[in-house]
Design goal:
Blueprint (H helix, E strand, L loop, with lengths): L3 H14 L10 E7 L6 H4 L4 E9 L5 E6 L4 H42 L1
Antiparallel strand pairs: 1-2, 2-3
Helix pairs in contact: 1-3
The structure holds zinc ion.
The site of zinc ion has 5 residues, from helix 2.
Length: about 120
Amino acid sequence: MMTRERALRKREMLAARLPSPSGVLRGSLLQRTIHHSSGCLKCARGEGHPLAVLTVGYPGGTTRQVSLRPEQVAQVRKALQQYRDFKRSLEAISELNQFLLRLDRKESKEQEGKL
Ligand SMILES: [Zn+2]
């Protein structure tokens, strides 16, 4: 069972382990293949060129796309993971704070009952 002490300890641990937010990046990584309409031997053979794209969705359904250089892909992949880790930790801390809020309410109600 979750107690106040356990919740506080867990919150402390999560906060201490929170990674630095300076590297975070939201979105997802897609692999596309682009095809030139003419003048390209690779595309004439039907091969095309692989292209990594970062897509970022916004409220309202708009999406922004950023084409990436091959050498940017590893860095972007890492930054996306950092965003997910950071968000997951924030969510967990938020859940604990919600639990503490409900616990405070319950305890103050019980105090009132005793008076
Ligand atoms: Zn081509």
